[in-house]
TrEMBL record:
One of its GO terms (molecular function) is GTPase activator activity. GO terms for cellular component: cytoplasm. It comes from the Eukaryota. Pfam families: RAB3GAP2_C, RAB3GAP2_N. This is RAB3 GTPase activating protein subunit 2 (non-catalytic).
Length: 1324
C-alpha cells in the first residue's frame, strides 16, 4: 500500500465562476494550451466544459475550503463566489459529491476596497444528537481597508469589524484538539488576523457565541421585520509586532510553558547576572512570523494574571497586555442603529484601540532571504516556511531553529498530514491502553514543476510524488470545528480531508492519502518495513497495482531495501516484467518496462559475479596471457626498493568496517552505482571513493587474487554492455587502492592484472580501429593518466610494467598487419611508456625516503605522499622541496647531510666498491643514509648540493616563522645556507630571507630594546629565543656580505632538471627565485650587521643600552631599508660624545665577557689552555668582535685591548691577559694600570688575608714606608679574583717593570713591589 491521490468531489460551473470573477478582464494565456494526461485513469466521462479550462487564473484568486469540504469560497478583487456541497447521480447510477454555486456577489462596501484573505470556519452544533457535523459555516473575509466581515453560507452579512486601519494580510484559525499525551497544554480556540504591523487575536469562545447570537438575531429580525439587533460583546487582543522590517505571514502556536532550565536561561539573558527567578514558569502565547529583517521572528506574550506571579513576570518583561471588550455602541458596524442613522454610521468610523507593543524575542536572521508563507503542523511543534529563494525550511518551534531545508520549490504551497496508526496491526501485541501512534508528513506542491511530494518527518525520505499540473491550488485548513471542547467532543467522529488539491483544469478536488507504515522506513530494523511488505505478499500487491507510476515507485522501494534477498528481488522484477510483456504495447509504460529490464539485467549480473567469486574452481590459464616475459628484469631492478617500501608502508592503520574493500557488497549498493542509458548501455556511477572501491573489489579483486576466472568475468561484463574505459578505471582503482595486499604476492597479482588488461583491451570500444598512427592511443593514455595521479607508488609502478608490456604486444600485433611507415607511431607510444615507467621508479624511490620515520625528538608529522602529477605541478623545485621537508622532519644536521651527499658523489666517481666510514658510523638501522643516497642518484640535478641546501635553508626558516620560539630552526637554516657553494644562490636566499621573514622582527626587536632595554618578549619571542634570533641575524648578514663580495668572481650557475622531469609546470624553485634577486648595497648590509651585533651583545650579556642612540640621524634613517637600495650612510668624523658612548658600551661588553669566564682555579691547574664554547656569552670570538666593532664605530682599539688586559688580570686569567698584552701599543698607560692591580693583589695578601702569618707581618715591616702607605691605600675589593698564585703576581710585576720606562714616576714603586713579591715567594 502506497500514497495516493483520491478524487472525492467535482466542481460544477467552474467556467461560470471564472467568467464572473474575471468579467471584462483579459486573462494571460500560456503558449502551451494542451496538458497531457499523466495518469492512467479513464477521463472519457468527464464533462467537456471542465476540460477546456486552462491558465493560471486560480492562482490570482483567494481560495479557501472548509475543513469539512462542504463549502468553497473563491474571491477576486471585490467579487466572491460561494460553492456548497451537493450530491448527484451520474450516468452509471453512482452518487458523487459536487460543489455548486450557492451565492455570488460583490463583498466590497467602500471605494477601492478589495478582498485580501478569506477563511471558512464551520461551527459545531449544540444539539445533543449531533455526531460531529457542523451546524453551519461562517465565511470570514478580510479586506485591504482593514475591515473584517463575517458572512453566512448564503452571503448574509453578520458582523463587520474595523480592528486596525491597515490591510488584512492573513486570516488563520485554531480550534480545539484533544491532547494526545498527558501534560500537554490544552489550546484555546482563537481567530488571528495579521496586519503589516499588528496582530489581532479574537478569543474563540467569544467569537463562537457572537456568531451564533448574530445569526439568530438576523433570522429573528428577518422573520418579524425589525432591524434593531443587539449583538453580544467580542473580546480580542491587539499586538504591535516590533523589530521586524516586513511581515507577510504568521502562525499562532498557542499557549506554552517553559521548563525550569529555559526559564532560568531566559531570565539570565534578559536580567543579567543578578536576575531572580520566582515561582513557576509563566504561560505564554507563542507567535511566529515570516517576512524580512529577520527572516523568521519568534514572539512571546505572557498570558493574563491568573497565577500569583504572572503579573510580576509581565512587569519584568515590559509586556502588559491590553484586552479590549467592545460593545455594540462602539465596535459593530450596522447594528443597534435605526434606518435614519445609516448614513451617520458610514461617515463615522468606529474607535480603533491602540496596539500593545510586543518585542521580538529572537529570530533567524538572513538579510537576503524573505519569507513568503508559514504553515503550522497539527502537533504545534513544527512549521514549514517558504521563501523567495525557492527553499522550504522546516522549523523546530520548541528550540527555534531550522532543522531541514529543501531547495528547488519556488512558489511552493505547503500542507500537513497527521496519520494515525491502524489499530488492527497492534491489537495482537499491545493492550488497548497504549495510545495510538501517529505519523507526520509534510506535503509540498511545487507549481513551477507541477509536482506534489510527500515527505516523512522530521528527517525521513520522500514517500510519494505525483505529477499534478502547474495551475493547481493546495488547500490546507489546519483547523476543525469552532465551538468544540473536551466535553462536547466526546464520541464525535469528525471526517475531514486534511489536505486537498484543487485542479482548475479538470475541475476535480482530490485528497492525499498516505498509509502509516511509510513512516516506518525511518527505522533501521529489518523487521519493520519488510514485515509490512512481506506480510502483504509484495509480489501480488505489486502486480495488483494498476497505475504504472505507483508500480514504479513500489519497485524502486523494494530494490532499495537491503533486507530483501537478491533472489527475492530477481523473482519480483521478473514477474513484473513478464506481466508487462503480456499486456498490450499501447497500455505499457515504456519507462517502467525499461526499469524492469535494466534492473533484472543488473541483478543477473550481480548474481553471476557473486557466484563466480564464491566458487573455488580452478581452471587452466592461457599461458600466452599469463607469461610475464620482459618484466622479470624490471622486477629484479626495483626489488630492493620494493622490499624497503613494503616494510615502511606496512604499519597498521585505522579504518571503518563499512569502508573496508573486503566488506560484502549488497545488491542494492550494486544497483545504485550502475544505471542504464537510453541506448541500453550500462554506465558506472562514481558516488564516493569507498563505494567505488567496494564495487571494484566485488568485480575484479577475485580475479586479481586468482579466485575467479578473469575471462568469464570479462565476458559477463561485455555482455552487460559496460564500457571498457570505465572498467579500466575501476580495475586500476582497485589495484592501486589495495596496494598492501598486492605487494604480499606481487608475481601472481601481476600475472592476473596482465590477463585482465589484455582482455579489456580486446573488448569492443577499447582501442579504436580508426586510431591515427601519428597520435597516442587514448586507451593507453587513460591508463597512464590514472597511474600518474596515484599516490600508491609501488602498485602504480607494477601496473605500469604490465601495461607497458601489454601495450607493446598490442601495438606490435597491429603493426604486423599494417604498412612499414607506421612504425613511427609504435615508437612514440612506447616512448611515452618508457618515460612513465622511469618517472614511477623515481617516485617510488622518493616515496620510500619520505616514508622513513623520523627519530625520537625530531619534528615528526605525517609522511608526505607524492605522485607524478604532484611532482610535475610542484614545478622544477618540487622534488627538492619534498626532500627538504623530509630533512626538516628528521631534523638532519647540515654537516651530516653534507657528508651523505659527498659519499654519494664519491660512489658515483669511484664506484660502489669503496665505502666511507664516516657515513657508516652515522647510518641508522633503517638505512636512512643509503635511501637518501639512492634518491640523490636518481635525481642528480634536482638534488645537487646547492639546490638541496638552499631548499633546506628555506624550509627551516619557514618552519621557524610558524613558531619563532624554536630558535634552533633558524640556526639550522643559517647552517644550511653557509653550505651553499654558489654565491649567486647564497646572495638571493639571504636577500629573500631578510625581506620575507627577518627584517620585520628585527626592526621590532631594535625599537623594543631601544624603548625597554630589559623587555624583549613583545616581539613574539622570549629572551632566549630573541638572543638566538639576533645571533642568526648577525651570521645571515655576514654570509650576505661574503656572497656579495664573491659574486663578481664566479659566474652564475646553470640550473637543470632530469630529462624525464622536464615537463614540470608550476611555481619556480627557490634557487630560480634566488638567481632573480637584485644585488645588495654592501655598506647598507654592513650597517645592519653592526646594529645586529650590538643588539646581540646587549641581550647576550643583559646590558642596559639604547642601541639606536649609538648612531647619528643618518645612521638611524638608513636602518630597516631595502638592502638593494642605496641609502645615505654616516661618513667622516663622528661626534666625540657619541664615540664616548660607543666606547663605554664596548668596554661593558668586554667586562661582561670576562666575568662569564670559568673559575680561574680550573685553568690554573690545567696544563694547557681552556676549551671555550663556540656560542653564547663564553664564546672565544667576543673580544675580536668588539675590536672589529670598535674599528667601525671609530673607537680606538688600543683602549679596548688595555681594558681587556686589565679585566683579565682582574679576573685572575693571567695567561689570556699575557696573550692580549702583546697587541697593546701604549705600554706606559697599560703599565700604570697593571701596577694598580699588582698593588691590590699584594695588599690583599699582606693586609686583608684572613690567614695572615708571622712571616708576612715581618715582610711588611721590612718594606719601605712609602710602599706600606701605598699598599694600605689600595682596595682589594675591586678585584674579582684577589687570591692569585704568587708566581703569577711575580710575572705581572716583571711585565710592569718591562713596560714602564726608568724615568717613570712609578718605576721605583714597581721595583719595591718586585722585592716584596720575591720575599713572599721565598717565604712560601
Amino acid at each position: 500500500m502506497s500514497c495516493g491521490l483520491l478524487e472525492f468531489c467535482r466542481l460544477q460551473e467552474l467556467k461560470t465562476v471564472r467568467d464572473y470573477l474575471f468579467h471584462g478582464q483579459t486573462e494571460p494565456v500560456e503558449n502551451n494550451q494542451t496538458a497531457e494526461n499523466e495518469f492512467s485513469w479513464d477521463t472519457s466521462d468527464w464533462e467537456t466544459e471542465t476540460t477546456e479550462l486552462s491558465g493560471p487564473w486560480l492562482q490570482n484568486c483567494t481560495v479557501s475550503l472548509s475543513p469539512c469540504s462542504d463549502l468553497l469560497v473563491v474571491a477576486h478583487e471585490q467579487k466572491a463566489v460561494f460553492l456548497s456541497a451537493k450530491w448527484r447521480t451520474d450516468g452509471g447510477g453512482r452518487e458523487e459529491m459536487t460543489l455548486a454555486v450557492s451565492w455570488s456577489g460583490i463583498l466590497s462596501t467602500e471605494e477601492g476596497e478589495r478582498v485580501s484573505s478569506t477563511i471558512c470556519i464551520p461551527l459545531a452544533s449544540q444539539k445533543r444528537s449531533s455526531t460531529g457535523r457542523p451546524d453551519w459555516t461562517c465565511v470570514v473575509v478580510g479586506f485591504t481597508s482593514g475591515h473584517v466581515r463575517f458572512y453566512t453560507e448564503n452571503g448574509v452579512l453578520l458582523l463587520a469589524q474595523l480592528l486596525h486601519e491597515d490591510q488584512v494580510l492573513r486570516l488563520k484559525c485554531r480550534t480545539y484538539e484533544i491532547p494526545r499525551h498527558p501534560g500537554v497544554t490544552e489550546q484555546h480556540e482563537e481567530l488571528s488576523i495579521l496586519y503589516p504591523a499588528a496582530l489581532v487575536t479574537i478569543d474563540g469562545f467569544s467569537l463562537f457565541q457572537s456568531l451564533r447570537a448574530c445569526r439568530n438575531q438576523v433570522a429573528r429580525a428577518a422573520a418579524v421585520g425589525s432591524d434593531v439587533i443587539q449583538p453580544p460583546p467580542l473580546a480580542y487582543k491587539k499586538w504591535a509586532l516590533q523589530d521586524m522590517d516586513a511581515i507577510v505571514d504568521h502562525c499562532s502556536v498557542g499557549v506554552m510553558t517553559l521548563n525550569v532550565f529555559d526559564q532560568m536561561k531566559n531570565a539570565s539573558i534578559l536580567g543579567g547576572f543578578n536576575a531572580s527567578v520566582k515561582g513557576s514558569p509563566p504561560a505564554m502565547s507563542q507567535y511566529v512570523t515570516v517576512g524580512g529583517g529577520p527572516y523568521t521572528g519568534f514572539y512571546y506574550a505572557v498570558e493574563g494574571s491568573t497565577q500569583p506571579l504572572l503579573s510580576h513576570v509581565a512587569l519584568a518583561v515590559a509586556s502588559k497586555l491590553t484586552s479590549a471588550l467592545f460593545s455594540a455602541a462602539s465596535g459593530w458596524l450596522g447594528w443597534n442603529k435605526h434606518k435614519n442613522e445609516d448614513e451617520t454610521v458610514q461617515k463615522h468610523k468606529p474607535k480603533v484601540e491602540p496596539a500593545t507593543p510586543l518585542g521580538i524575542r529572537f529570530g533567524l536572521p538572513d538579510s537576503r532571504r524573505h519569507g513568503e508563507s508559514i504553515c503550522l503542523s497539527p502537533c504545534n511543534t513544527l512549521a514549514g516556511v517558504t521563501d523567495d529563494f525557492g527553499r522550504v525550511t522546516l522549523l523546530d518551534l520548541n528550540r527555534g531553529i531550522a532543522i531541514r531545508m529543501w531547495k528547488g520549490y519556488r512558489d511552493a504551497q505547503l500542507g500537513w498530514l497527521h496519520v494515525p496508526e491502524e489499530q488492527v496491526s497492534r491489537e495482537s501485541s499491545l493492550s488497548t491502553s497504549v495510545p495510538r501512534r501517529h505519523a507526520l508528513f509534510l506535503v509540498i506542491y511545487a507549481p513551477r514543476r507541477g509536482i506534489l511530494e510527500i515527505w516523512a518527518m522530521q528527517y525521513g525520505p520522500r514517500v510519494g510524488a505525483f505529477n499534478v499540473g502547474k495551475h493547481c491550488r493546495l488547500l490546507y485548513a489546519g483547523y476543525r470545528l469552532l465551538g468544540v471542547n473536551s466535553v462536547t467532543s466526546q464520541g464525535w467522529k469528525i471526517h475531514i480531508h486534511q489536505v486537498c488539491l484543487l485542479d482548475p483544469v479538470t475541475g476535480t478536488l482530490r485528497t492525499v492519502n498516505v498509509p502509516f507504515h511509510l513512516a516506518l522506513r525511518l527505522l533501521h530494523s529489518p523487521t519493520v518495513h519488510v514485515y509490512t511488505l512481506v506480510n502483504s505478499e509484495a509480489k501480488d500487491v505489486l502486480l495488483d497495482i494498476k497505475q504504472s507510476s505507483i508500480q514504479k515507485q513500489a519497485l524502486e522501494s523494494l530494490l532499495s531495501n537491503k533486507s530483501i534477498p537478491v533472489l527475492c528481488l530477481t523473482n519480483i522484477t521478473c514477474a513484473l516484467l513478464s506481466a508487462l510483456q503480456q499486456q498490450d504495447a499501447d497500455q505499457v509504460d515504456p519507462v517502467l518496462m525499461q526499469l524492469c529490464s535494466s534492473r533484472l539485467k543488473l541483478l543477473q549480473l550481480y548474481t553471476d559475479i557473486h557466484h563466480m567469486n564464491s566458487s573455488a574452481d580452478s581452471e587452466d590459464r592461457n599461458e600466452a596471457l599469463d607469461s610475464l616475459d620482459g618484466t622479470e628484469g624490471d622486477l629484479a631492478r626495483v626489488s630492493p626498493t620494493l622490499q624497503r617500501y613494503t616494510k615502511l608502508n606496512s604499519r597498521p592503520s585505522v579504518s571503518f568496517v563499512q569502508d573496508a574493500p573486503d566488506a560484502p557488497l549488497p545488491a542494492q549498493t550494486f544497483l545504485s552505482q550502475i544505471e542504464c542509458t537510453e541506448d541500453g548501455q550500462l554506465k558506472l556511477i562514481h558516488h564516493s571513493e569507498p563505494e567505488w572501491n567496494q564495487l571494484g573489489s566485488f568485480i575484479f579483486w577475485g580475479c586479481l587474487c586468482g579466485k575467479s576466472p578473469p575471462h568469464k568475468i570479462c565476458d559477463k561484463l561485455q555482455q552487460a554492455a559496460i564500457g571498457p574505459t570505465q572498467l579500466l578505471s575501476l580495475l586500476l582503482s582497485v589495484w592501486l587502492q589495495r596496494e598492501k595486499e598486492v605487494l604480499q604476492t606481487p608475481t601472481e597479482c601481476l600475472r592476473n592484472l596482465h590477463e585482465l588488461l589484455v582482455l579489456l583491451s580486446n573488448m569492443d570500444g577499447a582501442i579504436e580501429e580508426s586510431w591515427d598512427p601519428q597520435s597516442v592511443s587514448p586507451w593507453w593514455q587513460q591508463c597512464r593518466n590514472i597511474l600518474v595521479q596515484s599516490h600508491n607508488s609501488a602498485a602504480a609502478l607494477l601496473a605500469a610494467f604490465v601495461a607497458h608490456r601489454a601495450a607493446r604486444a598490442s601495438i606490435t600485433n597491429r603493426a604486423d598487419s599494417k604498412l612499414q611507415s607506421e612504425w613511427e607511431a609504435v615508437s612514440l607510444e612506447l616512448e611515452h611508456w618508457v618515460v612513465c615507467v622511469r618517472q614511477l621508479e623515481d617516485v617510488l624511490v622518493l616515496q620510500t625516503l619520505l616514508l622513513v620515520p623520523p627519530t625520537v625528538g625530531a619534528a615528526g608529522g605525517p609522511a608526505a605522499l607524492c605522485s607524478i602529477k604532484t611532482l610535475l605541478e610542484g614545478g622544477s623545485g618540487g622534488i627538492t622541496d619534498n626532500v627538504s621537508k623530509w630533512v626538516f622532519r628528521h631534523n638532519l644536521a647540515s654537516e651530516q647531510l653534507k657528508e651523505i651527499l659527498q659519499e654519494s658523489k664519491d660512489k658515483d666517481e669511484e664506484g660502489a666498491g669503496e665505502d666511507v666510514k664516516v657515513v657508516e658510523s652515522r647510518e641508522t638501522a633503517d638505512g636512512t643514509a643509503e635511501v637518501l643516497m639512492t634518491v640523490c642518484k636518481r635525481f642528480p640535478h634536482s638534488l645537487s648540493p646547492n639546490l638541496l641546501f638552499a631548499h633546506c635553508c628555506w624550509e627551516f626558516v619557514v618552519q621557524w616563522n610558524k613558531d619563532p620560539e624554536e630558535g634552533a630552526h633558524l640556526c639550522r637554516a643559517v647552517e644550511h645556507l653557509k653550505l651553499v657553494s654558489s654565491p649567486h644562490i647564497q646572495l638571493g636566499i639571504c636577500t629573500m630571507m631578510w625581506s620575507t621573514f627577518i627584517v620585520k622582527r628585527f626592526s621590532a626587536a631594535a625599537f623594543l630594546i631601544e624603548k625597554h632595554p630589559k623587555i624583549a618578549c613583545d616581539v613574539g619571542m622570549g629572551d632566549k629565543a630573541m638572543t638566538s634570533f639576533l645571533g642568526c641575524c648577525v651570521q645571515l648578514l655576514q654570509v650576505l656580505m661574503e656572497a656579495d663580495s664573491a659574486v663578481a668572481e664566479v659566474p652564475p650557475p646553470e640550473l637543470s632538471v632530469e630529462e624525464v622531469w622536464c615537463g614540470a609546470e608550476g611555481p619556480a624553485s627557490i634557487a630560480e627565485l634566488a638567481l632573480d634577486q637584485k644585488g645588495v648595497h654592501y655598506p647598507l648590509v654592513q650597517h645592519h650587521c653592526l646594529l645586529a651585533s650590538l643588539l646581540h651583545a646587549a641581550l647576550t650579556f643583559s646590558l642596559k643600552v639604547k642601541p639606536l642612540s649609538l648612531f647619528d640621524s643618518k645612521g638611524k634613517n638608513a636602518f630597516f631599508r631595502d638592502l638593494t637600495t642605496i641609502q645615505l650612510l654616516p661618513s667622516g668624523d663622528t661626534d666625540p660624545g657619541l664615540v664616548l658612548l660607543r666606547q663605554e658600551f664596548l668596554l661593558r661588553v668586554l667586562t661582561a665577557w670576562v666575568q662569564c669566564m670559568d673559575d680561574p682555579s680550573v685553568s690554573a691547574s690545567s696544563a694547557g689552555p681552556r676549551m671555550l664554547p663556540s656560542n653564547g656569552p663564553q664564546a672565544v670570538w667576543w673580544p675580536s668582535l668588539c675590536l672589529e666593532l670598535g674599528g667601525l664605530l671609530q673607537v680606538t682599539p688600543d683602549i679596548l685591548r688595555r681594558h681587556l688586559v686589565c679585566q683579565l688580570y682582574n679576573q685572575g686569567l693571567d695567561p689570556h691577559a699575557e696573550e692580549v698584552m702583546l697587541q697593546v701599543e701604549d705600554k706606559d698607560v697599560l703599565g700604570s694600570q697593571l701596577l694598580m692591580i699588582t698593588g691590590q693583589r699584594l695588599s690583599y695578601s699582606l693586609l686583608h688575608n684572613q690567614d695572615q702569618t708571622q712571616p708576612a707581618m715581618e715582610i711588611l715591616a721590612r718594606l719601605p714606608p712609602t710602599l706600606c702607605t701605598w699598599l694600605k691605600a689600595m682596595d682589594p675589593s675591586e678585584l674579582r679574583c684577589p687570591l692569585v698564585p704568587l708566581f703569577q703576581t711575580s710575572r705581572l710585576v716583571g711585565h710592569v717593570i718591562e713596560m714602564l720606562p726608568e724615568n717613570h714616576a712609578q718605576y721605583s714603586l714597581a721595583l719595591h713591589l718586585l722585592e716584596a713579591v720575591d720575599a713572599l715567594t721565598t717565604e712560601d
